[in-house]
Amino acid sequence: MLTLESPATLCELLTRIRHYSGIAHKRDIQLVPQQLKAASLFDYYPNGDDCAVLPNGEGYSLLAIEGFINRFVEEDPWFAGWCGVMVNVSDIAAMGGRPQAVVNALWSAGEDKAAQVLAGMAAASAAFGVPIVGGHTNLRSQQTQLSVAILGQAKALLSGFAARPGQAVVAAIDLRGSWRAPNLNWNAATTADPAMLRRCIDLLPQIAECGLAVAAKDISQAGLLGTLTMLLESSQVGAKITLESIPKPPDESWQDWLCAFPSFGYLLTTPTTKTADLIEQFNQCGIAAAVIGEVTDSLRLDVMTNNQCECFWDLAESALTGFAPSTS
């Protein structure tokens, strides 16, 4: 594990999380809106959400892609393959969609690591019920590399651009897991009942279609606070949250948990009148869910605990990904 000595104050905790590598990787995205704005000619839906959105006669086609850090693929190739499917399924669900098919691109120095990656992908494909329909394979590369893309379909959207002041912020996380060493990956998926995995993933499109939430994002390698900052940046709003309200396994430190990538973890915003029904949807599947704060008009993510309140990120002073309505 990557646990450091417990920080003494909220300010120190947030400082450590801001310097976590998952946050730095999201800041790298700033290059994209700077360089590719002219290439984004399709203006129906702005770039920068968990999926690209293309309207069709039956709703919306959703497209997403994930690339994986080479070290992760090299150290844990089977789990990297599993995650190649899982994180793409999560991206589709985060926007209110249902996954339809996956393709991949795999490079390796030989068959051994490539076979493990493909075995992990096959296991996740079977568990989530999403077929792998094509891809690219090269076994004569200098290292193992993986990228996976997905197609999905949505009837109604959950948008990262739809958070508005006054809405409640809800966190929903599957706590029925354990760490997948050596990284801060909270694995509640690989040993779970596949039927339960599919039921939990289908909650998100059901929530979208019933209008129980308007904005959503799956918790990524940026951790809960980094992911929430990305959501706020897209919507050009702020939020104030209470640390103790965040669902967390009782024995885990706040530093580890706020940097964690959970196999099932979502942040949603919704009118306060709908929070009880939204939380009940998750609770019926055994997912821990709670109101953790509210959306504000401040462009700041403020975190409170006991008598302390500290700013995690001020978007008026510093962009995270650089994706906002004016740049997308």
Per-chain topology:
Blueprint (H helix, E strand, L loop, with lengths): L9 H9 L2 H7 L3 H6 L15 E5 L2 E9 L2 H6 L1 H18 L2 E11 L3 H18 L3 E7 L6 E10 L13 E6 L4 E2 L5 E3 L6 H8 L1 H8 L4 E4 L4 H13 L2 E5 L11 H6 L1 E2 L2 E6 L4 H9 L4 E9 L3 E6 L2 E7 L14
Parallel strand pairs: 3-4, 8-11, 10-14
Antiparallel strand pairs: 1-2, 2-5, 3-5, 6-12, 6-13, 7-8, 9-12, 10-13, 14-15
Walk me through the structure.
This protein has helices at about 10-20, 20-25, 30-35, 70-75, 75-95, 110-130, 195-200, 205-210, 225-235, 255-260, 275-285, and strands spanning about 50-55, 60-65, 95-105, 130-140, 145-155, 170-175, 180, 185, 215-220, 240, 260, 265-270, 290-295, 300-305, 310-315. With about 325 residues, it is of the alpha+beta class. The protein has 2 domains: about 10-30 and about 160-315, PurM-like C-terminal domain (Phosphoribosyl-aminoimidazole Synthetase, Chain A, domain 2); about 50-155, 60s Ribosomal Protein L30, Chain: A (2-Layer Sandwich), CATH 3.30.1330. The strands form 3 sheets. Strands 9-12-6-13-10-14-15 form a 7-stranded mixed β-sheet, with helices on both faces. Strands 1-2-5-3-4 form a 5-stranded mixed β-sheet. Mean pLDDT is about 95; it is low at about 1-5.
